Structures are given as structure tokens and as C-alpha cells.
User: Fold this.
Amino acid sequence: MTRIHLKARGALMPVILLMLTLLSCSRETATAPGAPKTADDAAEVGPLAARAIALAMAEPQIRQQILGDMRDSPFSEHKLVLQDYFATTAGARVLDAIQRAGIDSDKLRSAVQDARRIQFYVPSTDQRSSWQGTADVLVVANLTRQVPTAGFAPSGEAVPIALGKGMPSGVGALFVLQGAEPMFHRWSGPTAATATIQQPDETQIGSGRIVQDGSGHVISTTDDTPAGTSRASASAALNEPAGTYLTRLSNDAGVCDNTCPPGEHLEFIFKATASDNPNMYVSAELSGISPSPGAVWEGWWQVHTSRVSSIPLVTMDIQVWEVDDPPFNEDDPFYCTAVSPGCPFDWPHLEPTFQPEVWAFTLCENQPDGCVDLQGNLHPAFSVTFKDRSTPVATTVTVSPQNATISKSATQDYTAQVFDQYGGLMTNQVATWTSLNTSVATVVSTGNMSARATGVGGYQTTIQATVGGVSRNATLNVLAPATVTVSPSSISICSNGGQGYLTATVKDQNGTVWTAGSVAWSSSNPSAATVALFDPRVGRVTGGAVGSATITGTIDGVSGPSTVTVGTCLPPPTNCQIQYIAGPNYLKVTWANADATASTEVDINANGNWSNVGTAGPGITQYFYPVGGQHGLFYGRVRHVKSGFLPSTYCNTGSTTVP
Assistant:
């Protein structure tokens, strides 16, 4: 295998060669003993599957099917696993097309199932973001250590390919079948592309960890980025436990992968071994890093579950590798430089005596002295920072909304979030909710991190959410009736059935009129006056025996009074009339006396306003009112008044018009 040195961005090869760099086998990973995967099987299955898929892609609908299925893949570089794909409905359509092309699809599927797991994808970012399902494709088998020399076209023809001689003209997308490595979800989630596999600027960052024993056998594989997340701090978002974390990676010199094809992304592997478990190492892979000079990744990403500590003493070595794309079969290691602070070994070596919790290393490719010029100055290629991370604990709680106002009996929903000491959102937490004044509002949980408060009485209370002993408060104002004003403040009504009306005005503690609910009415002396609800804010008072009573309007425990006097009332006048006399220009009001010893008050309503215009003495049955320059519609009313008696009710005259 040939080691390929990383080049600075700008040393671009011809575009044809850039595509050719994607053809050969990728690095091999350790597999469980007894797995049915051999080089001979791969040599046979690879070309057979590549040619069969190419023949199927002669059909336009199959090309669109594959394009759409790769677009929907949640994994970095939109990869599919051929064995899994053939088991889907979409994959079955591809197998049907293979059958129509004259190849026994059942035998092909059986052979593929028995072989090493195979990834099926388009390695080139440019092609993934430009190919729209056209027939200009090649399918290449890359399942052995031998560099492939041919790819298959939809016609079934084997098209020769060779490094240095250029790609056959007219190839819009090169599809590769290669031995499957662990695949991790893209942090960016679903693509927004519609006609291509991906968008040109779509990030391909994904990450995960592979735990292997001393023999290289895989113990477990963890995809630490759920599909669809967009958080840069994937591990922090998943509440990862204690361990050693990469927190920063800086591409100081603009290192890229070999020939630096446009749109290329870098993959890094951190192989960590801790002294407390030397027979286990964790291979943590971070993909999709930009090759642009000065590009920085920051977050919380676990490279090992162990922590560097003094008691017990735990040290850690971390190898840093950049993963080469095909056809370059060896990955590139980085080494610490001799002048890097805290880096006395070829690989980063973490000890408790280094800077507490933070270790920064400057790394360069292949040899330590490769990063130092003749004057001994350091020219770093990559910088990485590791931090020791304790188990996340609830540190900060937020509650939303922070301030709310509701009316009594109304509800307010709340949500809480809890963050650890690193600022990571903690999931799968449960909040306890409390109202610090239950006479104002109560609160009940509606979910792990949600609650609903109900207004009970008017005032202010604190709604508190607590997670892991950490609390956060929110203020809830509950509006309720605070004052009741009854008007008029006093009235007089006739005994034995006389009636009057009282109106209650209700306001909350902010002085805003309260319209909800009905006022309850009561009388302090029902023998003199009773009261009944007429509408939600009006009480009708009925006189009984001569006397007085206090009428009270009450709502939600808040009351307002009015005084009612009940007395003997005079009988009202009868046969009341009004007419306009044009000559003298006056109004004439007439009536019949019901009590000849009583005087008579005369009121005139001119254009909607009542005014008392005079009082006629006992025995008089008419009254003359000069209108002057007034015009319009006029009304009249009269009532008897007499000392020692309550006034009679009014006798209305009807109306007349003054031209």
C-alpha cells in the first residue's frame, strides 16, 4: 500500500483524476469471527452485483428510484447497505429490473446476502449534488484490495478505467460497491434536495464510536447522532456520561484529502486506549470536516468512556488518523510535534499532571519534525483539544413563559428545559412542579417537562420547576374580581310591590372591568325589600313593608352595597297628555289628579334629555312650557309629590313635535 501525504488545498489534479480517486477499496475493519466474508467471495460477488445494478439502471424509473433512495438515506454521504436495500420494497423493484435484464435476481440476492456487507453510494460530493438520474453512470465493484480496472455501464458493457488515463467521457455519476464500514447519521438531518441526491452545500458531518477488544473484534458500535438532529454538540445533546471528549478541531493549514477534489470532506478517527482498561480501545470516527484553512469544529464528542484521573491513576493515549478516500488504501496518521506543549510522545498522551481538564495538541502528518521549519518554528496542520468530562448533572433549569397573566379559572401551560454543567440539553428528565401560593393558582404536571397552572384567586404566585435539585421560578398573575360598586348608591321605592333596579360594576385588581360570571344579590331586611337577579350585573328590588334595607351585590367574595328606602307612595296622575300650541309657541301638559292635595312635578324631555321644568300646586291639572327657539321631538311626564309620602310613579304623556 502506498502512503499518500496530505496536500494543502490548491494543489488540484485534473477533474478526471479527481473522480478516479474514488474507485479503490477503503480501509478494512475487524469483523466478528466466523463471518461469511472472504476475498474470493468478494471477487466474484462484486463484479456480478455491479453489472446487474448497472443493467437495471438502463431503466429511467430505476435510476430515479435509486436517486431518491440515496437522497432519503440518513447516513453520511447518503450511503445504502446493499443487503438491507434489497430487502426493501424499493430494492425489490431494482431486483425486478435485474431479472428483466436477464440475470437471475434470486441467485444474485442470495450471493449478496452471503457476502460481506456492501455499501452502495456515490463517493463524489459534486456528483451527488449534480446528477439528476441520467443514464451516464458507471457502477464499480471495490470489494477487494485490488484497484478496480473497469466499471459497468447500463448497457452491461465493462468500461475500462485506469489511473492517469482519465475517466471515460460523459460519466455523470460513479456508483461504488465497497465493503461496509460503520455508518453514522448526518447531523444535518434530511436533505432539502429535490432533483439530486444532495444539495451542494449540505454538511456531511456524522459521528459514532466502535469499541473493540485487544484482538480487534468489534464489541459494540454506537451512532451518537440521532437522525434529524442539527445540534453541533451531538454528544452533549445525548447526555453522554463521563469520559474523555474532543471539544475542538481546527484545520489550521487547510489540509485536505490527497488531491483535494471540490466539495471533499475529511474523516478523522481517534483510536483511544486508557490505562484502566488496556485491552479495550475505542475507535471514534468524525466525518464531514471542512478542508478549508482555519475551519473549526467545536462541540462535545466522546472519544473514550474512561476519564484521565489521579485517583485512581488513569492515563490515555489517543491516535489521530485522517481517513483516505479510495484508491489510497492507507490512512494518514498525525503525530505530535516535539515543541507542542504537553505532547512529549508521538501520539497525544493525557495525564492528570497536564492542564486540568484541558489538553491541547498540535498535530502534523507522518513525522514530528515535519511540522517544524529549519528555524525550529512550529507550523501546525491540525489542532485538537480534549477535555475530561464528568457525568452530566442538572445545572440550569429554564421555565417558559417566565411571566404570564391569566384570569381566574383560566389555565396557563408551562414547559421546562434542563441543561448540564457543559450547557448541553438534558433529555429524559422529569420536572417537579409547585405553586408557591395555591390560593392564587394550582399546578399539575402534564408531561415529563411540562405543566398546567389553573387560576384560583386574584393575586400573584410563583410557579416553580425542579429537576435534580435545581429549580427555576416563573411569575403568574391571576386576575379576579377586586371591587364591586353598586349604583345608584341609594334608592327609594314604594311599599307593597314598588320596584327599582341596581347595577353592579365589577373590576379586577388592575382596574379593568370584569365581565365573567354573575353577581349574587342579597337584602339585609327582606321584610322591607327583596332583591332578585335581573341579568348578570343587575338586581331588581321589590318593596315590602315600610322601612329600609341594604342591598349587597357579591361576586367571588367581593361585595358592594346600596341603601334602599321603602315608604308609602302617592298614587300617580292619570290621563297625561302633551301638545304644541303654535300661536304662543309653548307646550301644554295636562293630567288628572289622583290626589287633589298633592302637588305635581312636570318633566320635559327635549331631544333626549329630561329636565324638571316646574311644579304645579294642589288641584292644578295643567302646565304651560315656553319652547323658545327649540325644535324637534318633545316628551312629558308628571308625578305627584307630597310631604310625608314617597313620590308617585311617573305618568308619561306621549310625544309631540315642535317644527
